[in-house]
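Lab meeting tomorrow. Please check the following:
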Amino acid sequence: MRHPARPARSASAAWLVVPWLLAAGRAAGEAPPAMPPFPVGVVVDVQKPRGPLTPIWRFFGADEPNYATMKDGRKLISELGGLRPGAVYFRAHNLLTSGDGTPALKWGSTGAYREDERGGAVYDWSILDRIFATYLDHGVKPYVQIGFMPKDLSIKPEPYQHRWTPTARYDDIYTGWAYPPKDYAKWAELVYRWTRHCVEAYGKAEVESWYWETWNEANIGYWRGTPEEFRKLHDFAIDAVKRALPTARVGGPDSAGSGGKWTRDFLEHCLRGTNHATGKVGTPLDFVSFHAKGSPEVVDGHVRMGIATHLRTVQEGFRLVASFPELKAKPIIIGESDPEGCAACQGPRFGYRNGTMYSSYTAASFARKLDLAERVGVNLEGALTWAFEFEDQPYFAGFRALATRGIDLPVLNVFRMLSLMGGRRLAVESTHAIGLDDVLARGIRGEADVSALASIDGDRLAVLLWHYHDDDVPGPDAEVTLDLAGLPEGVPSALVHHFRVDADHGNAFEAWKPMGSPAAPTASQVTALERASTLDLVESPTRRTPSRGTLRLRLRLPRQAVSLFRIELERPSSARPG
Protein backbone atom coordinates (compact mmCIF):
# COMPACT_ATOMS: atom_id res chain seq x y z
CA MET A 1 0.00 0.00 0.00
CA ARG A 2 1.03 3.63 -0.35
CA HIS A 3 1.86 5.24 2.95
CA PRO A 4 0.33 8.65 3.75
CA ALA A 5 2.42 11.66 2.91
CA ARG A 6 4.86 12.51 5.65
CA PRO A 7 6.18 15.87 6.75
CA ALA A 8 9.87 16.51 6.29
CA ARG A 9 12.17 15.07 8.96
CA SER A 10 15.63 16.08 10.00
CA ALA A 11 18.57 14.23 8.48
CA SER A 12 19.61 13.05 11.93
CA ALA A 13 16.31 11.19 12.33
CA ALA A 14 16.11 9.76 8.83
CA TRP A 15 18.24 6.71 9.55
CA LEU A 16 15.67 5.54 12.09
CA VAL A 17 13.11 4.78 9.41
CA VAL A 18 14.88 2.81 6.71
CA PRO A 19 12.80 1.48 3.78
CA TRP A 20 12.50 -2.11 5.03
CA LEU A 21 11.20 -0.82 8.35
CA LEU A 22 8.58 1.37 6.71
CA ALA A 23 7.34 -1.64 4.78
CA ALA A 24 7.35 -3.85 7.87
CA GLY A 25 3.94 -4.77 9.11
CA ARG A 26 2.17 -2.85 6.35
CA ALA A 27 -1.57 -3.04 6.51
CA ALA A 28 -1.96 -5.85 4.00
CA GLY A 29 -5.60 -6.02 5.03
CA GLU A 30 -6.37 -2.77 3.16
CA ALA A 31 -7.03 -4.64 -0.08
CA PRO A 32 -7.43 -2.67 -3.31
CA PRO A 33 -10.99 -2.41 -4.66
CA ALA A 34 -10.09 -4.79 -7.51
CA MET A 35 -9.69 -7.64 -5.01
CA PRO A 36 -13.18 -8.78 -4.01
CA PRO A 37 -13.58 -10.69 -0.72
CA PHE A 38 -13.86 -14.46 -0.73
CA PRO A 39 -16.41 -16.42 1.34
CA VAL A 40 -15.42 -18.53 4.35
CA GLY A 41 -17.65 -20.67 6.51
CA VAL A 42 -16.52 -21.43 10.07
CA VAL A 43 -18.47 -23.73 12.40
CA VAL A 44 -17.75 -24.06 16.12
CA ASP A 45 -19.63 -26.94 17.75
CA VAL A 46 -20.28 -26.37 21.44
CA GLN A 47 -21.19 -30.05 21.80
CA LYS A 48 -17.76 -31.25 20.63
CA PRO A 49 -15.11 -30.44 23.26
CA ARG A 50 -11.53 -31.52 22.49
CA GLY A 51 -10.24 -31.45 26.06
CA PRO A 52 -8.84 -28.65 28.21
CA LEU A 53 -7.47 -25.58 26.45
CA THR A 54 -4.01 -25.40 28.01
CA PRO A 55 -2.81 -21.76 28.24
CA ILE A 56 0.50 -22.50 26.52
CA TRP A 57 0.90 -18.83 25.56
CA ARG A 58 1.74 -17.59 29.10
CA PHE A 59 5.56 -17.85 28.84
CA PHE A 60 7.90 -15.05 27.75
CA GLY A 61 11.62 -14.32 27.82
CA ALA A 62 14.59 -12.17 26.79
CA ASP A 63 18.39 -12.12 26.61
CA GLU A 64 18.57 -8.97 28.72
CA PRO A 65 17.40 -9.58 32.33
CA ASN A 66 18.06 -6.04 33.57
CA TYR A 67 15.49 -4.46 31.24
CA ALA A 68 12.76 -5.85 33.48
CA THR A 69 13.70 -3.43 36.27
CA MET A 70 13.81 -0.35 34.03
CA LYS A 71 11.00 2.09 33.27
CA ASP A 72 9.50 0.54 30.15
CA GLY A 73 10.47 -2.94 31.27
CA ARG A 74 8.51 -2.65 34.51
CA LYS A 75 5.49 -1.40 32.59
CA LEU A 76 5.60 -4.36 30.22
CA ILE A 77 6.18 -6.89 33.01
CA SER A 78 3.08 -5.48 34.67
CA GLU A 79 1.07 -5.94 31.49
CA LEU A 80 2.29 -9.51 31.08
CA GLY A 81 1.43 -10.36 34.67
CA GLY A 82 -2.01 -8.87 34.18
CA LEU A 83 -2.78 -11.38 31.43
CA ARG A 84 -3.05 -14.21 33.96
CA PRO A 85 -1.78 -13.12 37.40
CA GLY A 86 0.36 -15.71 39.12
CA ALA A 87 0.51 -17.99 36.08
CA VAL A 88 2.74 -16.05 33.64
CA TYR A 89 6.44 -17.03 33.52
CA PHE A 90 9.54 -15.18 32.39
CA ARG A 91 12.85 -16.73 31.32
CA ALA A 92 16.02 -14.65 30.95
CA HIS A 93 19.64 -15.26 30.04
CA ASN A 94 22.58 -13.86 32.04
CA LEU A 95 21.14 -14.31 35.54
CA LEU A 96 24.58 -15.34 36.88
CA THR A 97 26.72 -13.31 34.48
CA SER A 98 29.33 -11.05 36.09
CA GLY A 99 28.84 -7.29 35.92
CA ASP A 100 27.12 -4.36 37.58
CA GLY A 101 23.69 -4.81 36.02
CA THR A 102 24.18 -2.35 33.15
CA PRO A 103 22.26 -3.82 30.20
CA ALA A 104 23.20 -3.95 26.55
CA LEU A 105 21.82 -5.76 23.52
CA LYS A 106 22.01 -9.53 24.07
CA TRP A 107 23.68 -8.87 27.42
CA GLY A 108 22.87 -8.50 31.09
CA SER A 109 24.52 -9.17 34.42
CA THR A 110 23.86 -9.50 38.13
CA GLY A 111 27.31 -9.78 39.75
CA ALA A 112 25.99 -12.63 41.89
CA TYR A 113 29.42 -14.25 42.29
CA ARG A 114 33.01 -13.14 42.56
CA GLU A 115 36.10 -14.35 44.38
CA ASP A 116 38.25 -12.46 46.84
CA GLU A 117 42.04 -12.26 46.65
CA ARG A 118 42.32 -15.66 48.37
CA GLY A 119 39.91 -17.34 45.99
CA GLY A 120 37.04 -17.35 48.46
CA ALA A 121 33.50 -17.02 47.15
CA VAL A 122 31.62 -13.72 47.58
CA TYR A 123 27.87 -13.80 46.86
CA ASP A 124 25.67 -10.79 46.13
CA TRP A 125 21.96 -11.35 45.41
CA SER A 126 20.92 -7.69 45.29
CA ILE A 127 20.50 -7.35 41.50
CA LEU A 128 18.91 -10.78 41.17
CA ASP A 129 16.49 -9.85 43.94
CA ARG A 130 15.48 -6.68 42.12
CA ILE A 131 14.77 -8.69 38.97
CA PHE A 132 12.75 -11.43 40.67
CA ALA A 133 10.92 -8.96 42.92
CA THR A 134 9.89 -7.02 39.82
CA TYR A 135 8.43 -10.19 38.33
CA LEU A 136 6.63 -11.26 41.47
CA ASP A 137 5.30 -7.83 42.33
CA HIS A 138 3.52 -7.81 38.97
CA GLY A 139 2.11 -11.34 38.91
CA VAL A 140 4.97 -12.97 36.94
CA LYS A 141 6.99 -15.99 38.11
CA PRO A 142 10.59 -16.89 37.21
CA TYR A 143 11.41 -19.61 34.73
CA VAL A 144 14.92 -19.78 36.15
CA GLN A 145 17.78 -20.26 33.74
CA ILE A 146 20.88 -21.28 35.73
CA GLY A 147 23.62 -19.41 33.86
CA PHE A 148 25.78 -18.02 32.53
CA MET A 149 29.27 -18.61 33.97
CA PRO A 150 30.58 -15.92 36.35
CA LYS A 151 33.90 -14.50 35.24
CA ASP A 152 35.79 -15.71 38.31
CA LEU A 153 34.57 -19.28 37.74
CA SER A 154 35.18 -19.48 33.99
CA ILE A 155 38.08 -21.55 32.69
CA LYS A 156 38.54 -18.84 30.01
CA PRO A 157 37.55 -15.56 31.65
CA GLU A 158 39.00 -13.24 29.00
CA PRO A 159 37.53 -11.75 26.96
CA TYR A 160 34.35 -11.74 29.02
CA GLN A 161 31.69 -9.22 27.94
CA HIS A 162 30.96 -9.17 24.22
CA ARG A 163 30.07 -6.03 22.25
CA TRP A 164 27.03 -6.95 20.21
CA THR A 165 25.52 -4.84 17.44
CA PRO A 166 22.43 -5.87 15.46
CA THR A 167 24.58 -6.61 12.41
CA ALA A 168 27.48 -8.36 14.21
CA ARG A 169 28.53 -11.95 13.57
CA TYR A 170 26.66 -14.19 15.98
CA ASP A 171 29.79 -16.14 16.90
CA ASP A 172 31.30 -12.95 18.33
CA ILE A 173 29.10 -13.18 21.42
CA TYR A 174 30.53 -16.46 22.73
CA THR A 175 33.10 -15.11 25.16
CA GLY A 176 34.16 -16.09 28.69
CA TRP A 177 30.63 -16.49 30.07
CA ALA A 178 30.04 -19.49 27.77
CA TYR A 179 32.78 -21.73 29.20
CA PRO A 180 32.76 -24.51 31.82
CA PRO A 181 33.61 -23.77 35.45
CA LYS A 182 37.13 -24.19 36.74
CA ASP A 183 35.65 -25.88 39.82
CA TYR A 184 32.34 -27.79 39.69
CA ALA A 185 32.06 -27.82 43.48
CA LYS A 186 32.15 -24.00 43.53
CA TRP A 187 29.59 -23.95 40.72
CA ALA A 188 27.31 -26.23 42.72
CA GLU A 189 27.73 -24.17 45.88
CA LEU A 190 26.76 -21.01 43.98
CA VAL A 191 23.56 -22.65 42.70
CA TYR A 192 22.78 -24.14 46.13
CA ARG A 193 23.16 -20.82 47.92
CA TRP A 194 21.12 -19.01 45.27
CA THR A 195 18.26 -21.50 45.56
CA ARG A 196 18.37 -21.42 49.35
CA HIS A 197 18.33 -17.62 49.27
CA CYS A 198 15.25 -17.67 47.02
CA VAL A 199 13.43 -19.97 49.45
CA GLU A 200 14.31 -17.67 52.35
CA ALA A 201 13.37 -14.52 50.44
CA TYR A 202 10.18 -15.65 48.69
CA GLY A 203 9.00 -18.70 50.61
CA LYS A 204 9.05 -22.43 49.93
CA ALA A 205 5.61 -22.57 48.31
CA GLU A 206 6.43 -19.75 45.90
CA VAL A 207 9.76 -21.21 44.75
CA GLU A 208 8.16 -24.65 44.33
CA SER A 209 5.99 -23.11 41.60
CA TRP A 210 8.99 -21.97 39.51
CA TYR A 211 10.79 -23.85 36.74
CA TRP A 212 14.56 -24.40 37.01
CA GLU A 213 16.79 -25.38 34.07
CA THR A 214 20.49 -25.16 33.27
CA TRP A 215 21.90 -22.87 30.57
CA ASN A 216 20.64 -22.05 27.09
CA GLU A 217 21.11 -23.92 23.83
CA ALA A 218 24.18 -25.79 25.03
CA ASN A 219 24.17 -27.79 21.78
CA ILE A 220 25.44 -24.72 19.91
CA GLY A 221 27.87 -21.88 20.70
CA TYR A 222 26.28 -20.88 23.99
CA TRP A 223 28.30 -23.73 25.53
CA ARG A 224 32.03 -23.93 24.79
CA GLY A 225 32.54 -27.25 26.50
CA THR A 226 31.79 -30.81 25.40
CA PRO A 227 28.34 -32.46 25.65
CA GLU A 228 29.64 -34.54 28.54
CA GLU A 229 30.87 -31.42 30.32
CA PHE A 230 27.42 -29.88 29.90
CA ARG A 231 25.78 -32.94 31.42
CA LYS A 232 28.20 -32.60 34.32
CA LEU A 233 27.37 -28.90 34.68
CA HIS A 234 23.67 -29.75 34.62
CA ASP A 235 23.95 -32.58 37.15
CA PHE A 236 25.79 -30.41 39.66
CA ALA A 237 23.34 -27.54 39.19
CA ILE A 238 20.19 -29.65 39.51
CA ASP A 239 21.56 -31.55 42.52
CA ALA A 240 22.29 -28.20 44.16
CA VAL A 241 18.76 -26.94 43.53
CA LYS A 242 17.28 -30.15 44.91
CA ARG A 243 19.51 -30.07 48.01
CA ALA A 244 18.24 -26.58 48.77
CA LEU A 245 14.63 -27.39 47.86
CA PRO A 246 13.86 -31.08 47.28
CA THR A 247 10.44 -30.22 45.85
CA ALA A 248 11.79 -27.78 43.22
CA ARG A 249 10.59 -28.32 39.63
CA VAL A 250 13.64 -28.99 37.45
CA GLY A 251 14.18 -29.90 33.81
CA GLY A 252 15.81 -29.01 30.53
CA PRO A 253 17.79 -28.96 28.33
CA ASP A 254 16.41 -25.91 26.39
CA SER A 255 18.30 -26.99 23.30
CA ALA A 256 18.52 -25.07 20.05
CA GLY A 257 15.92 -26.81 17.92
CA SER A 258 14.85 -30.29 18.92
CA GLY A 259 18.53 -31.03 19.53
CA GLY A 260 18.48 -34.37 17.70
CA LYS A 261 21.13 -36.79 18.95
CA TRP A 262 22.45 -34.20 21.44
CA THR A 263 19.08 -34.01 23.19
CA ARG A 264 18.54 -37.76 22.94
CA ASP A 265 21.90 -38.35 24.68
CA PHE A 266 20.97 -35.78 27.34
CA LEU A 267 17.63 -37.46 28.05
CA GLU A 268 19.25 -40.92 28.11
CA HIS A 269 21.72 -39.58 30.65
CA CYS A 270 18.96 -38.10 32.83
CA LEU A 271 16.95 -41.32 32.73
CA ARG A 272 19.62 -44.00 32.89
CA GLY A 273 23.08 -42.47 33.15
CA THR A 274 25.38 -42.00 36.14
CA ASN A 275 24.84 -38.64 37.79
CA HIS A 276 28.12 -36.69 37.90
CA ALA A 277 27.23 -35.04 41.20
CA THR A 278 25.70 -37.91 43.16
CA GLY A 279 27.15 -41.04 41.55
CA LYS A 280 23.64 -42.50 41.44
CA VAL A 281 21.59 -43.45 38.41
CA GLY A 282 19.68 -40.62 36.78
CA THR A 283 19.08 -36.89 37.11
CA PRO A 284 15.63 -35.54 38.09
CA LEU A 285 13.56 -34.41 35.13
CA ASP A 286 10.21 -32.82 35.92
CA PHE A 287 9.77 -31.21 32.48
CA VAL A 288 11.46 -31.33 29.09
CA SER A 289 12.30 -28.21 27.09
CA PHE A 290 13.60 -27.48 23.60
CA HIS A 291 13.40 -24.53 21.18
CA ALA A 292 11.72 -24.06 17.80
CA LYS A 293 12.15 -21.21 15.33
CA GLY A 294 10.87 -20.25 11.90
CA SER A 295 12.85 -18.89 8.94
CA PRO A 296 11.59 -15.69 7.30
CA GLU A 297 13.22 -14.49 4.10
CA VAL A 298 12.86 -11.66 1.60
CA VAL A 299 11.26 -12.72 -1.69
CA ASP A 300 10.59 -10.25 -4.51
CA GLY A 301 10.96 -7.33 -2.14
CA HIS A 302 8.63 -8.56 0.62
CA VAL A 303 8.94 -10.68 3.74
CA ARG A 304 7.94 -14.34 3.47
CA MET A 305 7.51 -16.11 6.79
CA GLY A 306 8.70 -19.65 7.54
CA ILE A 307 5.89 -21.16 9.61
CA ALA A 308 6.54 -24.62 8.14
CA THR A 309 10.13 -24.69 9.44
CA HIS A 310 8.93 -23.56 12.86
CA LEU A 311 6.21 -26.20 13.16
CA ARG A 312 8.33 -29.01 11.77
CA THR A 313 10.84 -28.36 14.54
CA VAL A 314 8.03 -28.46 17.09
CA GLN A 315 6.92 -31.80 15.69
CA GLU A 316 10.48 -33.17 15.76
CA GLY A 317 10.84 -32.18 19.40
CA PHE A 318 7.53 -33.74 20.37
CA ARG A 319 8.39 -36.99 18.62
CA LEU A 320 11.81 -37.10 20.23
CA VAL A 321 10.35 -36.72 23.73
CA ALA A 322 7.54 -39.20 22.99
CA SER A 323 10.08 -41.82 21.89
CA PHE A 324 10.97 -42.27 25.58
CA PRO A 325 8.09 -44.12 27.29
CA GLU A 326 9.10 -42.59 30.63
CA LEU A 327 8.66 -39.09 29.20
CA LYS A 328 5.44 -39.45 27.18
CA ALA A 329 3.36 -37.77 29.90
CA LYS A 330 6.01 -35.30 31.11
CA PRO A 331 5.21 -31.62 30.67
CA ILE A 332 6.95 -30.09 27.65
CA ILE A 333 7.85 -26.43 27.42
CA ILE A 334 9.06 -25.06 24.10
CA GLY A 335 11.48 -22.75 25.88
CA GLU A 336 11.74 -20.40 22.89
CA SER A 337 9.15 -20.54 20.11
CA ASP A 338 9.40 -17.74 17.55
CA PRO A 339 9.27 -16.81 13.86
CA GLU A 340 13.10 -16.74 13.82
CA GLY A 341 16.07 -16.82 16.13
CA CYS A 342 17.51 -13.37 16.86
CA ALA A 343 15.38 -10.86 18.78
CA ALA A 344 18.16 -8.24 18.83
CA CYS A 345 18.90 -8.41 15.07
CA GLN A 346 17.64 -5.94 12.50
CA GLY A 347 17.29 -6.15 8.73
CA PRO A 348 14.90 -6.70 5.83
CA ARG A 349 13.86 -10.26 6.68
CA PHE A 350 12.84 -9.11 10.16
CA GLY A 351 10.44 -6.54 8.75
CA TYR A 352 7.40 -8.49 9.94
CA ARG A 353 7.80 -7.52 13.59
CA ASN A 354 6.07 -4.19 14.11
CA GLY A 355 2.83 -4.97 12.34
CA THR A 356 0.15 -7.53 11.69
CA MET A 357 2.38 -10.20 10.13
CA TYR A 358 3.71 -11.00 13.60
CA SER A 359 0.31 -10.91 15.29
CA SER A 360 -1.47 -13.10 12.71
CA TYR A 361 1.49 -15.53 12.58
CA THR A 362 1.26 -15.86 16.35
CA ALA A 363 -2.44 -16.74 16.28
CA ALA A 364 -2.05 -19.29 13.48
CA SER A 365 1.10 -20.91 14.88
CA PHE A 366 -0.07 -21.27 18.50
CA ALA A 367 -3.19 -23.15 17.39
CA ARG A 368 -1.02 -25.51 15.30
CA LYS A 369 1.29 -26.20 18.27
CA LEU A 370 -1.76 -27.43 20.16
CA ASP A 371 -2.76 -29.55 17.16
CA LEU A 372 0.70 -31.11 16.98
CA ALA A 373 0.74 -31.92 20.69
CA GLU A 374 -2.64 -33.62 20.30
CA ARG A 375 -1.47 -35.56 17.24
CA VAL A 376 1.77 -36.81 18.80
CA GLY A 377 0.11 -37.41 22.17
CA VAL A 378 2.41 -35.31 24.37
CA ASN A 379 1.75 -32.99 27.30
CA LEU A 380 2.46 -29.48 26.00
CA GLU A 381 2.52 -27.13 28.98
CA GLY A 382 3.95 -24.01 27.40
CA ALA A 383 5.39 -22.32 24.32
CA LEU A 384 7.60 -19.41 25.33
CA THR A 385 7.71 -16.27 23.20
CA TRP A 386 11.26 -14.89 23.21
CA ALA A 387 10.26 -11.24 22.94
CA PHE A 388 10.14 -8.45 25.50
CA GLU A 389 11.35 -4.85 24.97
CA PHE A 390 14.59 -2.98 24.31
CA GLU A 391 14.99 -0.07 26.68
CA ASP A 392 15.81 3.37 25.22
CA GLN A 393 15.94 2.17 21.62
CA PRO A 394 14.24 4.13 18.80
CA TYR A 395 10.50 3.78 18.36
CA PHE A 396 9.58 0.79 16.16
CA ALA A 397 13.27 -0.04 15.73
CA GLY A 398 12.56 -3.42 14.15
CA PHE A 399 13.60 -5.69 17.01
CA ARG A 400 11.46 -8.71 17.93
CA ALA A 401 9.57 -7.19 20.83
CA LEU A 402 6.16 -6.92 22.47
CA ALA A 403 6.45 -3.17 22.99
CA THR A 404 8.59 -0.25 21.83
CA ARG A 405 9.44 2.51 24.31
CA GLY A 406 6.36 1.66 26.35
CA ILE A 407 4.04 1.45 23.32
CA ASP A 408 2.55 -2.01 22.86
CA LEU A 409 2.89 -3.70 19.46
CA PRO A 410 0.02 -5.53 17.73
CA VAL A 411 1.37 -8.95 18.71
CA LEU A 412 0.80 -8.20 22.40
CA ASN A 413 -2.90 -7.79 21.65
CA VAL A 414 -3.05 -11.38 20.40
CA PHE A 415 -1.75 -12.49 23.80
CA ARG A 416 -4.46 -10.34 25.38
CA MET A 417 -6.97 -12.18 23.22
CA LEU A 418 -5.58 -15.56 24.23
CA SER A 419 -5.81 -14.54 27.88
CA LEU A 420 -9.58 -14.15 27.41
CA MET A 421 -9.91 -17.80 26.40
CA GLY A 422 -10.08 -20.80 28.71
CA GLY A 423 -11.94 -23.87 29.82
CA ARG A 424 -12.33 -26.56 27.19
CA ARG A 425 -11.23 -26.37 23.58
CA LEU A 426 -14.00 -26.82 21.02
CA ALA A 427 -13.98 -28.45 17.59
CA VAL A 428 -13.70 -26.00 14.67
CA GLU A 429 -14.37 -26.54 10.98
CA SER A 430 -13.43 -23.94 8.37
CA THR A 431 -13.90 -24.04 4.61
CA HIS A 432 -10.63 -22.11 4.21
CA ALA A 433 -8.33 -23.70 6.80
CA ILE A 434 -5.03 -25.05 5.51
CA GLY A 435 -4.58 -28.61 6.78
CA LEU A 436 -1.85 -29.33 9.29
CA ASP A 437 0.03 -31.66 6.95
CA ASP A 438 -0.01 -29.04 4.19
CA VAL A 439 1.26 -26.35 6.58
CA LEU A 440 4.10 -28.65 7.69
CA ALA A 441 5.03 -29.48 4.10
CA ARG A 442 4.65 -26.16 2.33
CA GLY A 443 3.73 -23.44 4.80
CA ILE A 444 0.89 -21.08 3.85
CA ARG A 445 1.95 -19.77 0.44
CA GLY A 446 -0.95 -20.58 -1.84
CA GLU A 447 -4.38 -19.82 -0.52
CA ALA A 448 -4.62 -17.94 2.77
CA ASP A 449 -5.37 -19.72 6.02
CA VAL A 450 -8.63 -18.57 7.61
CA SER A 451 -9.52 -20.60 10.67
CA ALA A 452 -10.16 -20.41 14.40
CA LEU A 453 -9.38 -21.60 17.90
CA ALA A 454 -12.42 -21.84 20.18
CA SER A 455 -13.13 -22.51 23.84
CA ILE A 456 -16.00 -22.69 26.29
CA ASP A 457 -15.85 -21.96 30.01
CA GLY A 458 -19.23 -22.20 31.69
CA ASP A 459 -21.54 -19.76 29.92
CA ARG A 460 -18.70 -17.99 28.15
CA LEU A 461 -17.56 -18.82 24.63
CA ALA A 462 -14.44 -17.45 22.91
CA VAL A 463 -13.50 -17.76 19.25
CA LEU A 464 -10.13 -16.54 17.95
CA LEU A 465 -10.21 -16.11 14.16
CA TRP A 466 -7.23 -15.35 11.95
CA HIS A 467 -6.59 -14.62 8.27
CA TYR A 468 -2.95 -15.54 7.72
CA HIS A 469 -0.57 -15.87 4.79
CA ASP A 470 3.23 -16.35 4.81
CA ASP A 471 3.70 -13.55 2.25
CA ASP A 472 3.45 -9.95 3.43
CA VAL A 473 1.65 -8.66 0.34
CA PRO A 474 -1.88 -7.32 -0.11
CA GLY A 475 -4.68 -9.82 -0.51
CA PRO A 476 -8.48 -9.90 -0.50
CA ASP A 477 -10.54 -9.82 2.67
CA ALA A 478 -12.31 -12.94 3.93
CA GLU A 479 -16.10 -12.67 4.18
CA VAL A 480 -16.62 -14.97 7.17
CA THR A 481 -19.83 -16.58 8.34
CA LEU A 482 -19.28 -17.92 11.86
CA ASP A 483 -21.83 -20.40 13.19
CA LEU A 484 -21.78 -21.28 16.87
CA ALA A 485 -23.71 -24.53 16.84
CA GLY A 486 -24.99 -26.82 19.56
CA LEU A 487 -25.96 -24.11 22.02
CA PRO A 488 -28.03 -25.27 25.00
CA GLU A 489 -31.74 -25.40 24.24
CA GLY A 490 -33.62 -22.29 25.20
CA VAL A 491 -30.72 -19.83 25.38
CA PRO A 492 -32.61 -16.55 24.82
CA SER A 493 -29.69 -14.31 23.89
CA ALA A 494 -25.95 -13.83 23.88
CA LEU A 495 -23.85 -10.74 24.58
CA VAL A 496 -21.16 -10.50 21.88
CA HIS A 497 -17.86 -8.64 22.22
CA HIS A 498 -15.79 -8.43 19.03
CA PHE A 499 -12.10 -7.51 19.39
CA ARG A 500 -9.80 -6.95 16.43
CA VAL A 501 -6.11 -6.53 15.53
CA ASP A 502 -5.59 -5.19 12.02
CA ALA A 503 -4.42 -2.00 10.31
CA ASP A 504 -7.05 0.07 12.11
CA HIS A 505 -7.41 -1.69 15.47
CA GLY A 506 -4.84 -2.42 18.18
CA ASN A 507 -2.04 -1.22 15.94
CA ALA A 508 0.21 1.61 17.12
CA PHE A 509 2.62 1.08 14.22
CA GLU A 510 0.01 2.06 11.65
CA ALA A 511 -0.98 5.03 13.82
CA TRP A 512 2.67 6.18 13.94
CA LYS A 513 3.12 6.40 10.17
CA PRO A 514 0.61 9.19 9.42
CA MET A 515 2.29 11.21 12.18
CA GLY A 516 5.36 11.25 9.97
CA SER A 517 7.05 8.32 11.75
CA PRO A 518 8.50 10.74 14.34
CA ALA A 519 11.73 9.74 16.04
CA ALA A 520 10.65 11.79 19.07
CA PRO A 521 6.84 11.92 19.27
CA THR A 522 5.27 14.78 21.20
CA ALA A 523 3.39 14.10 24.42
CA SER A 524 0.08 14.22 22.59
CA GLN A 525 1.40 11.85 19.91
CA VAL A 526 2.58 9.40 22.58
CA THR A 527 -0.89 9.52 24.12
CA ALA A 528 -2.41 8.80 20.72
CA LEU A 529 0.00 5.89 20.16
CA GLU A 530 -0.82 4.42 23.56
CA ARG A 531 -4.51 4.68 22.76
CA ALA A 532 -3.97 2.99 19.39
CA SER A 533 -1.97 0.17 20.98
CA THR A 534 -4.76 -1.17 23.20
CA LEU A 535 -6.93 -4.18 22.41
CA ASP A 536 -9.79 -2.61 20.48
CA LEU A 537 -13.46 -3.48 20.03
CA VAL A 538 -14.70 -3.33 16.44
CA GLU A 539 -18.08 -2.13 17.71
CA SER A 540 -19.94 -1.75 20.98
CA PRO A 541 -21.01 -5.06 22.56
CA THR A 542 -24.25 -6.30 21.00
CA ARG A 543 -26.93 -8.72 22.15
CA ARG A 544 -27.78 -11.42 19.60
CA THR A 545 -30.51 -14.07 19.51
CA PRO A 546 -29.69 -17.69 18.59
CA SER A 547 -31.94 -19.62 16.23
CA ARG A 548 -32.49 -23.35 16.67
CA GLY A 549 -29.41 -23.74 18.83
CA THR A 550 -27.10 -21.77 16.50
CA LEU A 551 -25.79 -18.24 16.77
CA ARG A 552 -24.66 -16.86 13.41
CA LEU A 553 -22.16 -14.01 13.22
CA ARG A 554 -20.76 -12.35 10.12
CA LEU A 555 -17.58 -10.38 9.70
CA ARG A 556 -15.14 -9.19 7.08
CA LEU A 557 -11.65 -10.23 8.13
CA PRO A 558 -8.75 -8.46 6.36
CA ARG A 559 -5.61 -10.31 5.41
CA GLN A 560 -3.24 -10.69 8.39
CA ALA A 561 -6.01 -9.66 10.79
CA VAL A 562 -7.07 -11.45 13.97
CA SER A 563 -10.50 -11.24 15.60
CA LEU A 564 -11.71 -12.50 18.95
CA PHE A 565 -15.38 -13.04 19.69
CA ARG A 566 -16.14 -13.28 23.39
CA ILE A 567 -19.72 -14.42 23.84
CA GLU A 568 -21.62 -14.52 27.11
CA LEU A 569 -24.64 -16.83 26.91
CA GLU A 570 -27.73 -15.86 28.85
CA ARG A 571 -29.10 -18.81 30.75
CA PRO A 572 -32.58 -20.04 29.93
CA SER A 573 -35.10 -18.77 32.48
CA SER A 574 -35.62 -22.31 33.78
CA ALA A 575 -31.88 -22.55 34.54
CA ARG A 576 -31.69 -19.35 36.55
CA PRO A 577 -31.50 -19.59 40.33
CA GLY A 578 -34.92 -19.07 41.96
Observations:
- The chain has 14 helices and 24 strands.
- The chain has two domains: 23-50+423-575, 54-81+97-419.
- The longest strand covers residues 38-52.
- The first helix runs from residue 11 to 14.
